[in-house]
Structure formats: structure tokens, C-alpha cells
Amino acid sequence: MSVTIGIHPSVARIVPPERLESELSDAVPDAAIRVLDGGGDGGRDATVDPASVGDSLDVVASFGYEEWFLDAGLEWIHVVRAGHDEFPVDALRERGIALTNSSGIHGAPVGETVLGYMLQFAHGLHRYRTDQADREWNPRPWSESFTLEGERVCVVGLGTLGRGIARRADALGMSVAGVRRTPAPVDHVEERYSPENLREAVADARFVVLAVPLNPATEGLFGAEELAAMPEDAYLVNVARGPVADQSAVVDALRSESIAGAALDVTDPEPLPEDSPLWGMENVVVTPHASAADEAFPERVADIVGENARRLETGESLANQVV
């Protein structure tokens, strides 16, 4: 299999490039693989001098997008995450450059993380963690805790992430509702709603979990009116993208106590600015876009790239192809 794979330094946002290089060497043993030299401060903001690349690459595995990708003679770009909203799909299509993503590998870690958020809120664990840092023994009234069993969760978006959340919520005895564009049945989801009925879907939910991809249809999907439709004892969880929710409306809802709390793995912008009021709210859990973290992540990405390298050689359609 003759293919040259470049690993963009921006993958450091999720995994050390050298670790991904090692996994790719096992998954695509006949490929030439190299980590591209990056500038900037590494991770998401890393850049590469196009002159150092030339047209020597067939594939780039990357977290983010650079303009030189269009003119580097690439056959294919692989995004090491599910989201690809900043990639110019029309321009890539015009140049015949395939774009694939890592969708499908995040269901378990994101599902478990969401379960963790819900358990924290149900039993006040986030508050006890704060008390521990202050060396305070501060038991809450028994009436402030509840079990997840029997509670209703509305999962907005039933792709890989949403299905992973629904499966785990169902296993704990929660009543699971889901919002998706198509009416097809989904395992572990009792009730299904269309996006047009989003406010009705969240009206009786103790937890609302946003798990949709970011696109023109979902940007600003969850705003003041949707928050107002939630019960006062309900919690918002966002593991989608920051702009899916109107962050200022979320802050207003929290301040006015029209919702009970929020767990935000994604924010708008990222990182969350130091002066954001969200940092100081006791009923808010902020995590740094980390819900998909998993020690097996490099291996799973390499498996997708390896399979697609084989398909590229045989002329088959690529897995997880966006363009």
C-alpha cells in the first residue's frame, strides 16, 4: 500500500502527534508517515509552512484546517474529531479532495461523561468537591438529592453521541426522549420528537442534553425560548458545540433560576474567557471540551485511517466520508 500520510501538529489538541504516528504505523504498515513541523503555540493554533510540505503528501490527518490543504496535491483529509464545520466542503469538492472524520468513536466516552454530569447534579457531588478544596464538612439536606432512575432525559440529536447517551441513561432506568430530523425508531429512546417540536420535547425533562453537530440549522438552536420551556428543576448539558446554545441566554436562565444548573463541555468562545460569569456559578460544571477523551482514541482514529487507506487503493468509497 503506497500512501504518504502527514500528521498535522494540531492533532496535539487531542493526542500527541507521535502517539498517532505510532498507531498509524501499525494500522498502515506500508505507508510513509511523518509529523509535520508546526509553528504557533501548538495544538489547535498550530500552523505549518506550506513550503516545507510541497506536494509530497497524499493524506493529512488534522484537527483543524489550513488553506494550503487545498493546493498541496492531497487526495484526502482526515479530521481526527467528529466536527468539521471550519473545513470548506465546497472548495474541497471542487478540487476532488475527499474529507473524512472520526465520527462513531466517541459514543462511549461522551455517554459516560454525560452520565457523570447527571450523577453529580443528582447527588450534589460537584458541591462536595468544592467543599473538599475548602476543607469543609458540609452535608446537604437529604431533600436536595434524587436518583436518576425514573427521571426524564431529552437527548437533542441521536447520532453516535446521542445514542451513546440514550443507551446509558436507559440502563439506569431513566425515561429517554430524543429529538431528531427523521422519525425512524432508535434503540433506548421511548419518545421521538422533530426539531420543530423541541420545546414540547424538553418541557418535562429533568435533563436536556445537546448532542447535535454544529451547522447552519443547529447554530443557536437552543435559546431563551427553549430554556424557558424547561422545568425550573431541570439541568442543561451541552456536549455538542458552544454555538448550538445561546450562551448569554444560558447565563440569564441560571441567574434567574429558571433552570437548576448546567454542565458545559463546550462554550462560545473556547477557551471560556476568564471573566465569564459561568466560572463562579456553583450550579455550573465547566469542562474543557474533554468529554470525548479516551486512552484508546489514537488507536481508533488509526483504524479509520488504515481502513480508508485500503479503500483508497482499491477504489472503494471511504468510511465516514463528508465530501
How do the helices and strands line up, and which of them pair or pack?
Layout (H helix, E strand, L loop, with lengths): L3 E4 L9 H11 L4 E4 L23 E4 L13 E4 L9 H7 L2 E3 L6 H17 L1 H9 L18 E5 L3 H12 L3 E5 L11 E3 L4 H5 L4 E4 L13 H6 L5 E4 L8 H9 L5 E4 L19 E3 L10 H18 L9
Parallel strand pairs: 1-2, 1-3, 3-4, 4-5, 6-7, 6-9, 7-8, 9-10, 10-11, 11-12
Helix pairs in contact: 1-9, 3-5
Protein name: Phosphoglycerate dehydrogenase-like oxidoreductase
GO molecular function: NAD binding; oxidoreductase activity, acting on the CH-OH group of donors, NAD or NADP as acceptor
Family: Belongs to the D-isomer specific 2-hydroxyacid dehydrogenase family.
Q: What number is the mean pLDDT?
A: 95
Which geometry do the CA atoms define?
Answer: elongated
- Major beta-sheet overview: 7 strands, parallel
**What is the total domain count?**
2
SSE pattern, N- to C-terminal: EHEEEHEHHEHEEHEHEHEEH
Structural class of the helices, strands and pairings? Answer: alpha/beta
CATH H level of the largest domain: which superfamily? NAD(P)-binding Rossmann-like Domain
Strands, total number: 12
Distance between the termini: 23 Å
Specify Rg, calculated over alpha carbons: 21 Å
Strand content: 5-15%
CATH architecture of the largest domain: 3-Layer(aba) Sandwich
For the record, what CATH class of the largest domain applies? Alpha Beta
Q: Please bin the fraction of helical residues.
A: 25-40%
Question: Can you tell me the CATH topology of the largest domain?
Answer: Rossmann fold
**Could you list the spans in which at least 5 consecutive residues all have pLDDT below 50?**
none
Strand order, sheet with most strands: 8-7-6-9-10-11-12
- Number of H/I helices: 9
